[in-house]
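Throughout our pipeline, every protein is held as a single compact record rather than as scattered files. The record that follows is passed on verbatim for readers who wish to inspect the format.
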Amino acid sequence: MKFKPLLDRWKKPAAPVRTVKEYSIRLPLDDAARLHALAELFPGQPIEELLTDLLQASLDEIAGAMPYEKGPKVISHDDQGDPVYEDIGLTPRFVELTRKYRKNLEPAGGK
C-alpha cells in the first residue's frame, strides 16, 4: 500500500482482520506529534488505525525495496524465451517467514 491511498482510505471507515496479539511501542516525540496531527486531520480514524496503516505501508515499501539476487537455478522463461532465475535474495525468505508467522498469529477459526 502506498501512502497516497492511505490518505484516501482514512477518509472512510474500514475494519481489517486484526491479530489477537497486541504490540506496544513508544514513539519518538516528533513522530508522536505528527501522528496526533494526522489524527486531527482525519478525525474519523483512531490513532491505532493510523499506526496500523502506516506500518502496513512501510512494510509494503520495505518488501518492495528488497533487491532481487539472481540464483543459479532457472525457474521459468519470459515471453521472449529468456531464462528467469530464482531469487536467492531476501525476498523469498521474507515471504516464507511471513507465511509462517501469519499461520501462528491468525485468530482461531481463520478470520
Q: What stands out?
A: The radius of gyration is 19 Å. Residues 49 and 80 are 45 Å apart (CA to CA).
